[in-house]
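Progress against Task 2.4 (sequence-to-structure conversion) is shown through the following example record, which the project officer requested during the mid-term review.
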Amino acid sequence: MAKIRLTEQEHLRRIAAVRAKIDEMGIDALYLVSRPSIFYLTGFSHISTERPLAVVVPLDGEITFMGPALEKEHIPLQTRLVPSIRNYLDYPGTRHPMKHFARFLKEMRLDGKTIGIDNPRGALSTWGYRGPGISDLVPRANFVEAHELIPSMRLTKSPEEIDLITESVKWGNLAITLLQRYVKPGEWDVEVATRASLEASERMRRTLGPGFEPPVSHLPTSAGFRGQVGPKSAVPHSISTDRPIKRGDVLGAGSGPNVGGYFSELERTMIAGRPNTKQRKYFEVMLEAQDAAFEAFKPGATCREVDMAANRVLRRRGCRSFIRHHTGHGIGLEEHEPPWLDVGDNTILRPGMVLSCEPGVYVPGLGGFRHSDTVLIKKDGAQILTHYPRDLESLTVA
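Structure tokens generated for the chain above:
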């Protein structure tokens, strides 16, 4: 049976580990505003808005949610691990939400305690926050910086997390298969992507069954080009394009399905029609750089060493000026998360880490050439979890 969500036991294990850690640090409670951290610990997923929201994990006692009333009925639908729910009506309100938070902390008898916090303001909002910091309103509490506590736990994945990422990989493979099938000169890339993404998501829903609930507010499986069509494929984070696909275009295709809150990453460079000499050259250089990075993945190696292995190939092949980003990044609850396969990151690779591998060659006026694969570090080496064809012949769209 396919893995579609984390078990409650997994979250309880994490909560116990966090409590042991804050006890060791001399902290009485952990105050979290990061959406991924809250989900990682409790299983509660939410849409971040302008409204302040936090979860407090005391050393002893109930985990407490503090946030807008619109989440009141939402929490018990997702988790049983946050039994205490304290609400305010809305933001900014006649009484500022942070003043409610100060009252809640005092009611929890934390106003004279040491509180680890992942954001010094005590609030994090996508659409802007204005107001006092929580430490200004609870002056008797000793707030200490703890924003790396949960992210450090997330660096290595548990067997349950790896199962979810592996399940995600299956649906990325399907989504890219459909995307390549539907590519046709004259088509708008958005139409191709929508058709492939909807079909892949429908198949995913039917296969995983009625218990499957996407943890995101959009299609759980999607694939697209994100504007990386023709010359704009040389812009790594292109957003859109103003013309249809043409014969001879370089296409940057990608998919990152979400299963149980966890992502994988699969990207492929496709050519719409017979590739020319330059396209073949840079495609092969990109493959060679990715192969060098694959060989560098192993426990005990550093992220820096993987990036340098790929870049040595690119420089040797005369592509130094065509490098636009590092070789990859961690992946899990977020599509991009630490560590970074970057010359400036000396993080040591450990079993259980999951990363993308995606060195790229970006030639202005011609196109961008990048494959991305999801890689799991194991005790005896590394395993490439994604398995879509990488060769030029397979990725040439007739």
